[in-house]
Amino acid sequence: MKRAFHLRTAALAAALLSAAACTSTTAASTASSSAADAAPVTLTMWGTYGNGGNTAQTQALAKLITKFQSANPNITVNYVDMPYDQLKQKLTTSAAGGGLPDVLRSDIGWVAQFGKLGAFAPLDTEMPGFGDVAKSTYPGTLAANKYNGHYYGMPLDTNTRVLVTSPDVLAKAGMTAPPATFDDFKAMAAKLPAGTQLFADSGLQGWNVLPWIWSGGGDITDADVTKATGYLNSDKSVAAVQMLVDLYKAKQIPNLITGNQGGTSTSDGLPGGKYATILDGPWMVDIWGQQYPSFKPVFSQVPAGPGGSVSVVGGESMVMSETSTHKDAALKFIQFTLSDDFQLGMADAGQMPVVATAGTKAATAHPYYSVFATQLQTAKARLPIPDAGQVDTILNTELTKAFNGSESVKDALTAAASQIDPLLKA
Q1: pTM of the entire structure?
Q2: What percent of the chain has pLDDT over 90?
Q3: Which of 23, 153, 233, 300 could form a cystine bridge with 414, CB 3.0-4.6 A?
Q4: What is the 3-state secondary structure (H, E, C) of 263-281?
């Protein structure tokens, strides 16, 4: 759902590519050759590029696979597309009973879970030149692949959330620019026209609240991800969430944030003037282009608090199964996915690059992408732990109590932290 990019990154190309006629190769020079690679090899790859009938992405992938195979005639890549939920279930079943693919396009939230199970191979020990390749990616996207001291995935595509503001509401509020700080954000509420609420979001999970907590100078755990107590319920974390609760009680945030399914969605409420701002990603440009073609949103950084402007990382990673019998070939293909050829090709189908220089250059063709490229420089990953899904459930459950007034923010975050602590030791 993201816009195309055009980029050329010489440093990355030098590290990952070698010439093959008029076509870039697959960074094979960084992977060791072996007798196994000399013989014909068929790699199986699972992924979800076709979700929602996205033929543009599957077609782009097919062209890139053909390019890879042309440069590596002994390797054939057999791509199998699955719906998102089906892929997670298939992966779970196969990890327990065998039959994993050689490579997989994995949600970043799955990497730690299956790394712990031994289903994914540690790429930092398996991939030649891992360190050099890893340095070319956004730090937040790389961090999402780390578990128990090893990297079980390599960033493939990425996204983040930024503040999105209605230009009509901005004008009616007498403002020339979106709110840049927490203070600006709160002050905007008093300037809004009747019938417009300041901000809307659709949940209280990490994806929703962590940008506010981080920007407020708080955190969810310590740096080593060993303890939530003392961090998630710190004064700075509490203050950041309290700001949202206060705005909610002042009816400047709709109860959509606490799970009310009857409210106006953020994608409809912003262009309709019901909400002044939301947090969302670059994929919304295509959605609004189809549904509200006259709506031209204003993108800006997450309002900065005591911790600066910090958002959350999303996206997918490439992983290799521990049971693959074609690891040399699999590593060549994974390295190829970070080459200019692959990143450019998939960017044309709407995938945001994970290479930092590529994200910056994308703004040349699509100026609004500069906001996302800048935000990714400070964006952080959600907890890279096997039980990350449970963390989201805990946050949503406990924070809903704070928003509904049955608990203080401090008590809600303390309760959440005490439940998250045991998950960090799993």
Answers
A1: 0.78
A2: 69
A3: 233
A4: CCCHHHHCCCCCEEEEEEC
